[in-house]
Amino acid sequence: MMGLRFHLCFLVLCGTLIIPTKCLAQTCLPEDHVALFVFGDSLFDAGNNNYINTTNDYQANVWPYGETFFKYPTGRPSDGRLIPDFIAEYSKLPLTPPYLHPAGYHRYTDGANFASSGAGALVETHPGLVIDLNTQLKYFKNVETMLKRKVGETQAKKLLSRAVYLISIGNNDYLAPFTTNSSVLLSYSPQEYVDMVIGNLTTVIKEIHTKGGRKFGFLSLLPLGFLPYTKASAPGNSEEITALVKRHDKALTHALQILTSQLKGFKYSYTNLYNSITERMNNPLKYGFKEGKMACCGTGPYRGIPSCGGKRSVKEYELCGNASEYLFFDSAHPSEKANEQLAKLFWNGNLDVTWPYNLKALIEHK
Q1: pTM flag (> 0.70)
Q2: CB neighbour list of residue 291: distance below 8 Å, 6 or more residues apart
Q3: How far is CA 235 from CA 270, 326, 338, 364, in A?
Q4: Whole-number Å distance between alpha carbons of 68 and 124
């Protein structure tokens, strides 16, 4: 029996195809296995906020969220799958469950999702209500410890060095000062504030690198000044928000270039989400949408009041008949159809939108 178990662990037979695998304790992985570790905000949150003490403002665990694909609300702020879900699919991995899911599904050899709706790079962004980026890093370090216990230090290092680290952060750091009672922008110049956000993100990247991380995927910020949410909730601030977004994206691309020269083996993919979404907002029909500026679910101007699901401060909401006709599902988040389009750009987009590598090339790079 032991000999048979060893044989099955060492070879995976698919018809006549023999795929070499590596056995890590009781876990057998293909030699080219790549895990996904996901950090960030609501663009990437697979449901972590279901399991923290927060308000309904930062949760999406009510119908009609999830209606298109899952048929029930998972905590993802969309009608279906998010960008990391599609990246997992393209990578031939199962969907990465939220790290805080209590059900015990913790196959960390495939990765983990730490993202939290409302989170920022700054701990001051929605403090006490979200999992900020530094706390997400602590959770990753917990996973690193568990992997070492499960597969041994050598194999854990190999897994972490082959893994891809997806990061979407910063959107809330620039929205919160305009949509909450925060006075943070009165204390700093715009450039000082951007430098703080980029500084915190850079520190986290360096920490992941010290744990073996080498391959990273980043998204630019959303066109925050023109989301349905902003146009309904902070209509007079679009120009100021947009100026901050552009400062951030410029600073991030510069920081990534510096990190490439500083950190051994550091490689990254950067996707211009700002331009990709703006293009779809302005030309929805070209991308298969009927509506590019109004949300499918919400109320008020552009359905930009975040009332989708009826559990937040505003209870009334309207719901469109077909979410796939809309670029935005709710006041600030893309529909599943939009997420799939954006994920494809992240995965194998050309240099006009994704550089210096796309994720597919990054994963294949030895």
Answers
A1: yes
A2: 284, 320, 325, 326, 327
A3: 29, 21, 24, 44
A4: 34
